[in-house]
Amino acid sequence: MKKWKYLTMTAVVGSALMLGACGSNGESSEQTENPTTGTENSGSETPQQETAKLSGTANGDGSSTVAPIMDALVELYAGEQPDVKVSSGVSGTGGGFEKFSAGETDFSNASRPIKEEEAAALDKAGIEYTEFKIAYDGLTVVVNPENTWATDLTVDQLKQIWIEDGTTKKWSDIDPSWPAEEIAFYAPGTDSGTYDYFDEVILEGAELVSNAELSEDDNTLVMGVSGNKNAIGFFGYAYYLENQDKLTAVTVDGVAPNNETIESGEYTPLSRPLFVYAKNSALKENPAFYDFMKFTLENSGDMAEAVGYVRLPDEIYAEGLATLEGLK
């Protein structure tokens, strides 16, 4: 599920970050004069300023929506701490929380807030955790580029399209002027936080159309919609950006998803934050995991933009770092 197209962009961001780190940790080859001895010293001779090298492991799982950000962070972190092995799987937000409460992971990526029953399972397992926000996403509804009629939908029309009513739905059922062609549906799987979020704000607990093709792999959804003139689907904003040459993003109540409307909340009700949940005991007992989470909060804004999401305000990252520091 790696987004190689956007990881190329990540490499550019990573180079800038590494160059910045080089200037601040004394690893630059630039020569400076010692004011006491008058001799020239390399910045690399100030080991107290160098980044401490760590070793160890950390593992996580969860949201496919968060995966492009986390994949980029894991790859970039490996360049800074090559002896720390971080893995991050993709089983959906719900699947990730199941592994988290079973004690199988140190962190859980989520495209929605944790549910009461998931929090209860963690409490029962004696696992304390902390929620960190890392980016904004705009859940994006997409249609095939040949669909020229359903490019601007209202929330009410989305409900009419996606809620199961026992009929075989045609576009003409939504608007008589639209084609009398059967709608093909593509949606994230039920373990996905994207599915849960859509259920909350659009379905409002009603049943999703029964003939939808469900998949935890958003690339499968992209292929389905791009290959069928009468298809409609939804997934995270980054997946739309990567595939915008073969998809059309639907405006919702006249508002298109983009960085500005997602960050401002104007793209409502489909704008949402993305999260990482970290196990408190792992943060305290595993210096490598603590360092990775610190790295995540320091760099997730850049990585969010690199892979196609929207960075949070700087103060939210600062609050997260302060919270993390208090858990050390």
Automatic annotation (TrEMBL):
Keywords (A to Z) from UniProt: Cell membrane, Lipoprotein, Membrane, Palmitate, Phosphate transport, Signal, Transport
Lineage: Bacteria, Bacillati, Bacillota, Bacilli, Bacillales
One protein family per Pfam: PBP_like_2
Subunit and interaction comment: The complex is composed of two ATP-binding proteins (PstB), two transmembrane proteins (PstC and PstA) and a solute-binding protein (PstS).
Stored InterPro entries: PBP_domain, Phos-bd, Phosphate_ABC_transporter
Reported function: Part of the ABC transporter complex PstSACB involved in phosphate import.
GO molecular function ontology, one term from the record: phosphate ion binding
Annotated region (Disordered), positions in chain: 23-64
Originating organism: Ureibacillus massiliensis 4400831 = CIP 108448 = CCUG 49529
Biased composition (Polar residues): 25-64
Topological relation to the membrane, as annotated: Lipid-anchor
Signal sequence residues: 1-26
This protein's name: Phosphate-binding protein
Cellular component terms per the entry's GO annotation: plasma membrane
Cell compartments where the protein resides: Cell membrane
Family, per entry: Belongs to the PstS family.
Residue ranges occupied by any PBP domain in the UniProt entry: 48-298
Keyword Lipid biosynthesis: no
Biological processes annotated in GO: phosphate ion transport
